[in-house]
Amino acid sequence: MIDDLLDEPDDQRDPPPKKKRRLRRALLVIASVVVLVLAGVAGYVGYLSTKVDDIAREPLLPTQEDGQEGTTSEGTKLVSGRGTNYLVVGSDARPGESASRADVIQLVHVPADSSGVYLVHFPRDLYVPIPGKGEDKINAAYAYGGAPLLVRTIQDLVGVKIDHVAKTDFEGFKQMTDAVGGVRVYAEEASGSSGNGGVAITKGWNDLDGAQALAFVRERKQLSEGDISRGQRQQAWMKAIMTKALSPGVLLNPVKFSGFVEAGTSNSVVDETLTSKEIRDQALALRGIRGDDIHFITAPFSGYGTSPGGASIDVLDEEGMAELGDALKADEMDTYEAR
């Protein structure tokens, strides 16, 4: 009786040899498909890793020879915050040009927990002390001494170490936008087609291709606050391109995503200390970021004025800059309130 209960019913016993062979073949086919898929993914990841490895590197950070490494120009020790600080510089150099000024100056802060991205726009007309050059517009620092001097200038302002630098040119803006199939950006105010690549910008959402996006981020003469408004447009584009690049439609599309990586790496230069592993790790850590996690800030200024030489300037708000520096040091940008 007990032996009868322990016997398996006929339909649960091993299948006959022919059924076993069919089952084994089916499992082999499935396993082969999985292996091929994994191999394809591995090859795709390998390709992207190779492109990251190929990105150009230059000495973009200050060195001891520059007079500042780990300290401000006044000798105060720079604080290394809990998060990571990247300086993103967009040069106004065009093909064939060597001399240039920084048309885009954005300090990008990524908190230690990678919960968001904070873009701090430094208006190019912000009148600040430039180490060894006296006071001038902040974008003049780039013209005087390239990225290392611009880094020193900003570090003096906020008292926080800039960990890495990335710079791109206008062609990079255009190609990255086209690679993801265009972007949808939000404009705080309208501007006419004459200054925007033949397309009029309306207040609200606008769908732009690469050439239109480039004109969008460069426009300032038609905007109410000139360079301040242009900085807001640059931030809107950065948010749009980050959101689009991290969307399933791009991330899961090998053609689009590899094109985006190709456009970004071929038109960009990073500092020599930024390793390929750091780039990949940071990208992986930010994979869950969405539009609402990207925050815009304008570096504090107290109004508009005129330099001793008669140029229009944005007047530095020293107290506000100190508060910004404190938030960066403490990795508490989520509680920072712009003046």
Structure description:
The structure is a single chain. The chain is an alpha/beta fold. The chain has one domain (45-335): 3-Layer(aba) Sandwich (Aminopeptidase), CATH 3.40.630. Helix content is 42%, strand content 20%. It is built from 10 helices and 13 strands. The protein has helices at residues 2-6, 17-54, 138-158, 170-179, 210-218, 227-245, 248-251, 254-266, 276-285, 318-330, and strands at 56-58, 84-91, 102-110, 117-121, 126-130, 134-137, 164-168, 183-187, 204-208, 268-271, 294-298, 301-306, 312-316. It has a 7-stranded mixed β-sheet, sandwiched between helices. A 4-stranded mixed β-sheet has the order 6-5-13-12.
Taken in chain order, the helices and strands follow as: HHEEEEEEHEHEEHHHHEHEEEH
For the sheet with most strands, the description reads: 7 strands, mixed
Class from secondary-structure proportions:
alpha/beta
CATH topology: Aminopeptidase
The proportion of residues forming helix, as a percent range, comes to: 40-55%
Residue runs with pLDDT of under 50 for 5 or more positions? 1-13, 37-42, 95-99
Count of individual beta strands: 13
Shape: globular
Radius of gyration, rounded?
Answer: 26 Å
Distance between the termini: 86 Å
Order of strands in the sheet with most strands: 1-10-7-2-3-4-11
Total domains = 1
CATH architecture: 3-Layer(aba) Sandwich
CATH superfamily: LCP protein
**CATH class categorisation:** Alpha Beta
Compute the average pLDDT. Answer: 80
Supply the number of helical segments: 10
